[in-house]
Amino acid sequence: MSTLLPQADRADVPPAAHLLAVEDLTVEFRTRRGVVHAVNGVDFHLDERETLAILGESGSGKSVTAQAIMGILDTPPGFITRGAIRYRGTDVLTLREEDRRKVRGQKIAMIFQDALSALNPVFSVGWQLGEMARVHRGASRSEAKRAAIELMERVRIPNAAQRVGAYPHEFSGGMRQRIMIAMALALNPDILIADEPTTALDVTVQAQIMQLLAGLQDETGMGLILITHDLGVVADVADRIAVMYAGKIVENARVHDIYARPAHPYSEGLLASIPRVDQRGGKLEAIRGAPPSLIDLPPGCSFHPRCDYRRDNCTRDVPPLYEVSADRGSACHYWQEVLGAQ
Amino acid sequence: MGRYVIRRLIQAIPVFLGATFLIYAAVFAIPGDPVRALFGERQVAESTLNAIREDFNLNDPLLVQYGKYIQGVFQGDLGRNFRGRPVWDIITSAFPVTLRLAVTAFSIEIVIGLIAGVFAGLGRGRFIDNLVRVSTIFLVSIPVFVLGYTAQLLFGVELRLLPIAGLRDGWLSYVMPGFVLAAGSMAYITRLARTSLVENLHADYVRTATAKGLPRSRVIGRHTLRNSLIPVITYLGFNLGELMVGAIVTEGVFNLPGIGRATFQAVLAQENSVVVGVVTILVMVFIVSTLLVDLLYAVLDPRIRYE
Lengths: 342, 307
Prior knowledge:
The structure holds two protein chains of two kinds.
Chain A: E1 20-31, E2 34-46, E3 51-55, H1 62-70, E4 78-87, E5 90-91, H2 97-103, E6 108-111, H3 115-118, H4 125-137, H5 141-154, H6 160-163, H7 173-185, E7 191-195, H8 203-220, E8 223-228, H9 231-237, E9 240-245, E10 248-254, H10 255-260, H11 265-272, E11 322-325, E12 328-330, H12 335-340
Chain B: H1 2-28, H2 34-38, H3 46-55, H4 62-74, H5 87-122, H6 127-141, H7 144-158, H8 175-201, H9 204-211, H10 216-254, H11 259-268, H12 272-300
């Protein structure tokens, strides 16, 4: 890249601090119908070059967690009521808005599910890409345009120099998502949060986008948080997985461990629900019941109404994240039983 | 784009013919004898009346009358009123007054309406928003003449801040009528801008702009406002014509010698050529302003292309 976009200064960082550490994050939405407990004490961390997948169904709180980290939560109604979000040891929640803004886009960037609605329809893609350099680096119009073309080439958009003046609606879905990625990477952020980046795309294009992300991560060494409900995507690219249910992380493990032997009944149910070619004609497994209302969470373990391992204390005692092994946790009182069942 | 403009202008020809014919027929259908009415209580020989009727083609059937009128128009002759004054003369003396009034009202409603709308939208649910919402309902629901007379009484008679009526004080004469004429549309623009802004503030691309780390002023000023203006611009296109029509009442209240008052007098006197001449000008204003708005769309929203 040009001198416009220098690498972050990493000299003053104590080596012990994680790139990103989320501690006891709690987000609620105050609505007319009541308080929606969207995220309830989430802990996780991310290091450089690492890919963490946050897995969960709609309403599990995974996107809200991402928005809280970015600082783009709609407030009101959304409020962060507890917890810390530490970027290289500094809690960004304590920063003034002006300083927080400088973290957004420059240090932590984000891409969204639907690139067509996430790009502004009335400005050319070159303008929107160049805006990063103009606003954050004070680049001139021509410098910004050159930076935009470079970025488009970096995410392998053909004929970048000709297409820099085109508008979002003139690109295909996959190309638009590439442009989103280019925009997120414009200032070489340390962390990229991808919120369901491939959900709106064709399967073949999905693979290309995931490859592109993986390649760019290799080049830059950034940490990647991949938010998804697609178990297939996760298995290919993630190092670790955090499974979310009703605003909590219920299992946290290396990707191989969780695929081999899940330690939480919900993870077990998710994995069992993947259709398998070698069991064609068999019944598709589904987790029975429906996710709980986030306004009125069940007492004890949120998953107990749908759980086959349920005992009496599950309806009373909230399970902590038990340590299964050094780098693995499960929020189930009977995780040993779940592990042993396979 | 050039071809689009030409096509739109060609489409204006049937609109022009249709509008003029409808207006001509409407005035034709007004009951009563305009020629006899000219003389009030005085006794006039029937032969005199007939000569005047013959002179203005009033004895012909509707279609023949209209045909003769249109033939004149295409030869550059808009006709005369019953007192012999050329219609073109009436239009050229009255039109500038109405144009100034409309431009004043237009500027007032754009500036105040947009500012109020943006502030209300940004402060949704707060005091400023409620204030704007209540006052716009108030403005929309008051009839123009009530507002006009109240303003005259308050600012003209009591406070002596502005001229009460007439045109003797230059541009100051247009301030009060301008506000009165603009009031309803101003309230409407405010609400339109507010709603559109509130909607756009929750758009995905605004969230993206925030996630890019842009300052809030830029997120709103560059990324939100432009999209929010599109419905307002649509309304403004129709509104310029509406203001011309609204001028009929406003010019009456403030005694301004504009198009509105000329139309009103001509309708009362059943002077067909004057009414049609004036209204044709208004139709033209409508056609041109909606065309301008449609062209402005393409500037504001690149997704719209004219092929």
